[in-house]
Write a structure and sequence with these properties.
The chain is α+β, with helices and mostly antiparallel strands. Helices cover 26% and strands 35% of the residues. 21% of the residues are buried. The strands form two sheets. Strands 5, 6, 7, 8 and 9 form a five-stranded mixed beta sheet that branches. A four-stranded mixed beta sheet has the order 1-4-3-2. It has two domains: 61 residues, 2,3-Dihydroxybiphenyl 1,2-Dioxygenase, domain 1; 55 residues, 2,3-Dihydroxybiphenyl 1,2-Dioxygenase, domain 1 (Roll). It holds the Pfam family Glyoxalase.
Length: 125
Amino acid sequence: MIWANLAVDNLERTTKFYTDLGFKPNGAPNEQLTSFIMGENDFIIHFFRKEVLQSNMNMVVSDAHSAAEILFTLSADSQKQVDDWADEVVKAGGKMLSQPEAFGAGYYGFMFADPDGHRYNVFYM
C-alpha cells in the first residue's frame, strides 16, 4: 500500500473542500487529520494539521503556497469533464493556477491549488 500525508492549516476547510469536489471520506475526521480516497485505485491522502505532521516527522513541512511539494494529476474522460472540474474547483474554493486549455497534440487540462496550496493537474489525453 502507498498513501500521501499532507499538511493543512484548517481541517474543517479541507474536509469541506474535498467533500465539495466529491471525494469519498476515508473514515471520519478527527482532531489531527481528515482523509479521502482518490480515484478508482483507492489512493488515500491524509491531510494532517501542520503542527501534527511536523511533530511526527520531526522536520519542518514546506509552505505549499510558496513551493511546489508535489503535483497530483487527476485523469479526466473528456474535455467537458475537465471544464466541469474547473467549475467545481472554483465553487469549492480552490485557486486556479491555469485555465483549461489545449496543449501539445491531444492534451487538455488545467492546474489548481487547494486552500492549503497543494497542487493538482486535471488532465485529459
